[in-house]
Amino acid sequence: MKRFLLLALAALGQAKTVTHDFNVTWVTANPDGLAERKVVGINGQWPLPVIEVNKGDRLVVNMHNSLDRAASIHWHGMFQNNTNYMDGASMITQCPVPPGSSMTYNFTVNQNGTYWYHCHTDYCYPDGYRQALIVHDEDAPFKFDDEFTVTLSDWYHDMVEDLSAGFMSVFNPTGAEPIPNAFLFNDTLNSSLPVKPNKTYLIRIINISAFVGQYFYIEGHNFKIVEIDGVYTEPAEADTLYLGVAQRYAILLTTKNETDTNYPIVTVADSSLLDTMPPELRLNNTNWLEYNKNADHPQATINVTDSTQIVPFDDIALVPSDGMELLPEPDMDLNVTVIMGNLNNGQSYAFLNNISFTTPKVPSLYTAMSAGEDIVSNKGIYGEFTHPMVLNHNDVVQIVVNNADGGSHPFHLHGHNFQVIDRQPPYGEHFFDYLNGDPVPYDPSNHTAFPKIPARRDVVVLPPQGYFVMRFVADNPGVWIFHCHIDWHLSSGLAMILIEAPQQMQERMTIPQEHIDVCQAAGIASKGNAAADTLDFLDLKGQASQPGWIPDGFTARGIVALVFSILSAICGIISIVIYGLADVKSKQADEVSTEREQSGVVVVEENVENPSKS
Ligand SMILES: *[C@@H]1O[C@H](CO)[C@@H](O)[C@H](O)[C@H]1NC(C)=O
Ligand SMILES: *[C@@H]1O[C@H](CO)[C@@H](O)[C@H](O)[C@H]1NC(C)=O
Ligand SMILES: *[C@@H]1O[C@H](CO)[C@@H](O)[C@H](O)[C@H]1NC(C)=O
Ligand SMILES: *[C@@H]1O[C@H](CO)[C@@H](O)[C@H](O)[C@H]1NC(C)=O
Ligand SMILES: *[C@@H]1O[C@H](CO)[C@@H](O)[C@H](O)[C@H]1NC(C)=O
Ligand SMILES: *[C@@H]1O[C@H](CO)[C@@H](O)[C@H](O)[C@H]1NC(C)=O
Ligand SMILES: *[C@@H]1O[C@H](CO)[C@@H](O)[C@H](O)[C@H]1NC(C)=O
Ligand SMILES: *[C@@H]1O[C@H](CO)[C@@H](O)[C@H](O)[C@H]1NC(C)=O
Ligand SMILES: *[C@@H]1O[C@H](CO)[C@@H](O)[C@H](O)[C@H]1NC(C)=O
Ligand SMILES: *[C@@H]1O[C@H](CO)[C@@H](O)[C@H](O)[C@H]1NC(C)=O
Ligand SMILES: *[C@@H]1O[C@H](CO)[C@@H](O)[C@H](O)[C@H]1NC(C)=O
Ligand SMILES: *[C@@H]1O[C@H](CO)[C@@H](O)[C@H](O)[C@H]1NC(C)=O
Ligand SMILES: [Cu+2]
């Protein structure tokens, strides 16, 4: 099937409709030259097509799923204002599109800059189903002669279904993430960006990885950062960037006058995220800013031994060029803590407070759209294990995310960019300092002064054992998932949903019939509460829930014992494990959740139970 682009000038202004037909199938590719594998292709091609639109355009993508599994497309960073149902997050805003079915995504793009699209159904984008989405803007507050878009990614030789089976498994009680086999630069290696002397280039860099952040610099060149995650910034001089998964930067690079030398573009994978380091894995890669095709293409000379010694530009220091000031004190204050731990099936899970996100039986948006007006704002109907929070229309919302885990986590909120008003420790030489002691949670009575004009973006990296604080206005009615963008962590539960302005959702939106038909084809209910109950929305009987807690007193030895007892059971051997079980008592008994209202400020507190750590 042919891919075609329809450029139809709208009656008013320059806005046009950009149409793509995507027939999604398996193809084969070997981008690192090390292993040919099956990847998700579009219209028989991989790398996938880069989508380009102008600001104000309508984007229409007709996706036909010719794979042997369900799929969807999320338009990362797109606000989907009044089109929440086009957000592409399976079981949040739509049903997963089953094999043989189609879905048309159709929305206007009133934003600038650098985005990407990717599958958002179970773990599906690490198999190659991700690519850049660029919004051109004639009115951008900077000038350049030409532009490049490059993606950075991690790459696995195995299919994600095989990797995930090993990841969520009693054989992996510590939750060690699969180690990639390679790191790609624009879905290849050893490539060159041909440049002319004395010119200014806009280079857009997108981390489309499943797991690993990367450092980026160009030998012999500084550059100016002019955009992060679709938000223009005052130009900021920098030499090195860190891109957590899903983050984007656009930089202006002015080339030298001389054309005798080519310069390495250096990418270094963030080794702090990798539990093991296979000797054959190339963490750093050289590509080239190519002034002269015939000159030498030298390998990078890297003068640090470990990626943690690299000092990147601190994105919190960037100032949005629209000058949007620090939002006022919040109307709603959420406080969540990232925790990794095991549940009683022996597997490792990720938690925000005491909840490991578990997919509901009805997409949460469809729960909101089918609930009675009187009950739509009751968070109970969205289920306990989706970790729902209901936001009032136009409230200022603050989210504090503390990290009780030793890894960093790139957190993404759908439907918004947000102000990052505090983050500790900062990027740089002290980034890993809190690992030397206990986690340090945000202390509202002892924090650094918030910036007057805070950086805004849609993915922020949560430091190891540290925290960040973000604010945004709940001006975009919809169900938006807030999650760690490391795909392994999303699948082990590091997510929650924000039910934003549910009454306005009902007033403003209608789910397209085609989307309802997709649910029918997938055999998934499109009405009802999180348990698919359409009669009594408050009855959550049968909702999907996380496995039970490990009884108190179960120690690390106990976890190992549990794993072995499960393994023994698998082998058909009866084994009674008694050590490790000190004081058997269910944790669930003392869980409480309270909400109190104070001078118009809703403070949501949840009792945080540390699941037993291994
Ligand atoms: C999609 O591609 C597959 C494989 O090339 C082909 O068999 C199928 O007919 C195509 N489907 C559509 C709807 O174009
Ligand atoms: C890239 O360059 C490295 C180092 O020269 C080489 O080992 C590797 O085979 C090259 N890979 C590809 C895909 O060109
Ligand atoms: C896209 O949505 C617009 C506005 O609702 C509508 O006019 C148009 O027909 C839709 N296009 C397609 C291909 O569905
Ligand atoms: C990166 O890859 C995309 C897709 O193959 C391509 O369109 C684009 O031109 C490449 N960028 C550069 C700088 O070569
Ligand atoms: C560089 O470009 C500027 C204009 O953009 C021009 O004035 C200048 O002469 C150029 N220098 C060289 C060495 O080409
Ligand atoms: C988007 O671009 C317009 C100019 O075209 C600018 O006024 C606006 O501030 C930009 N928005 C952001 C979030 O950078
Ligand atoms: C290139 O030469 C022009 C003058 O001809 C100078 O203004 C500019 O700074 C030079 N560029 C660089 C990167 O050295
Ligand atoms: C760069 O790669 C080499 C070979 O994989 C490795 O020995 C070295 O530690 C890496 N350097 C960094 C900073 O990651
Ligand atoms: C390492 O290299 C970077 C850029 O390539 C340079 O800025 C820095 O000074 C170097 N550090 C040392 C210790 O040589
Ligand atoms: C947030 O929760 C953590 C963990 O329970 C607690 O230590 C911290 O004091 C709370 N912070 C706020 C601002 O309530
Ligand atoms: C306030 O925070 C600073 C920096 O984290 C810390 O060193 C200091 O001990 C804290 N002071 C109090 C009173 O908690
Ligand atoms: C959504 O649109 C409303 C106007 O209908 C506007 O006030 C609001 O700022 C928009 N929100 C986003 C996130 O674009
Ligand atoms: Cu994570």
Task: Give an account of the 3D structure.
The protein is mainly β. The chain is built from six helices and 33 strands. Strands 21, 22, 24, 26, 27, 29, 32 and 33 form an eight-stranded mixed sheet that branches. One 2-acetamido-2-deoxy-beta-D-glucopyranose binds near residues 219 and 303.
Architecture blueprint of SSEs:
Layout: E1 6-9, E2 16-29, E3 37-42, E4 51-54, E5 58-65, E6 74-76, E7 102-108, E8 113-118, E9 130-136, E10 146-155, H1 160-167, E11 182-185, E12 192-194, E13 200-207, E14 214-218, E15 223-228, E16 231-238, E17 240-243, E18 248-254, E19 263-269, E20 284-290, E21 332-342, E22 348-352, H2 364-370, E23 388-391, E24 396-403, E25 409-413, E26 418-424, E27 456-457, E28 459-462, E29 467-473, E30 478-484, H3 487-491, E31 495-500, H4 502-508, H5 513-522, H6 556-570, E32 593-598, E33 601-606
Would you identify the CATH H-level superfamily of the largest domain? Cupredoxins -  blue copper proteins
Which regions contain 5 or more consecutive residues with pLDDT less than 50? Answer: 1-12, 571-614
Structural class: mainly beta
The biggest beta sheet reads: 8 strands, mixed
CATH architecture of the largest domain: Sandwich
Number of helices: 6
Distance between the termini: 51 Å
In round numbers, the mean pLDDT is 90
Q: What is the CATH domain class of the largest domain?
A: Mainly Beta
What form results from the Cα inertia axes? globular
Q: Assign a percent range to the helix content.
A: under 10%
Beta-sheet strand percentage? Answer: 25-35%
Ligands and ions found: 2-acetamido-2-deoxy-beta-D-glucopyranose, copper (II) ion
Number of strands: 33
Overall structural domain count: 4
Radius of gyration: 24 Å
CATH topology of the largest domain: Immunoglobulin-like
Protein name: Multicopper oxidase
Transmembrane segments: 559-582
Subcellular location: Cell membrane
Keywords: Cell membrane, Copper, Glycoprotein, Membrane, Metal-binding, Oxidoreductase, Repeat, Signal, Transmembrane, Transmembrane helix
